[in-house]
Design brief:
The chain is mainly β and about 200 residues long. It has a single domain, classed as Pnp Oxidase, Chain A (Roll), CATH 2.30.110. The chain is built from four helices and 14 strands. The longest helix is centred in the middle third of the chain and has 9 residues. It comes from Marimonas arenosa. GO terms for molecular function: FMN binding; oxidoreductase activity, acting on the CH-NH group of donors, NAD or NADP as acceptor. This is Flavin reductase family protein.
Length: about 200
Amino acid sequence: MFYRPEDGHGLPHNPFNALIVPRPIGWISTRGADGVDNLAPYSFFNGCAYTPPQVMFATTGIKPDRDGTKDSLANIRETGVFCVNVVAQAMTDAMNASSRTLPAGESEFDAAGIARADCETIPCARVAGAPAALECRMTQIVKIEGEANFVCFGTVAGIHMRDDCLVEGMFDITRFEPMARLGYRDYAVVREAFTLARPDD
């Protein structure tokens, strides 16, 4: 099968997201200028540089009370900071609950009963008990093609790692089984890993 996106795919559901898998989930926490903490999962998320460490996430939707974007990006525009929380399999239900659309003045932490902790380097909350959390300072927000498509880049200013996830000096993802986003409404859990040496090693 071949199709041009502008012509449509003719399938019951859009296959695009199912082709780019698995995708890490950036559970993005922000705090608005009004002090309200926001939390939402984004599957268009990844790291994009080592030195200095940098991450990106993309937001593609609109809320009527947020002037052409969503709460996360609106808050980042106001404060210039955000935190990326890593989603463990045990946090699946909480992560999903935080995706509910709420009015701008309401916090997903409160609505979903998710415990929070203060960040160390930025004025923002993070998910208490997350396997890892990356405190980020926004460097740029790039508008890309499409009505409400934006990519937010940030430099990592602080990193939290749960002590029980460190094994012999390495961060062991099998200790918490990270969630990954697939296509449609599907997810995956990473339960095993293997090492592969590069040809130049």
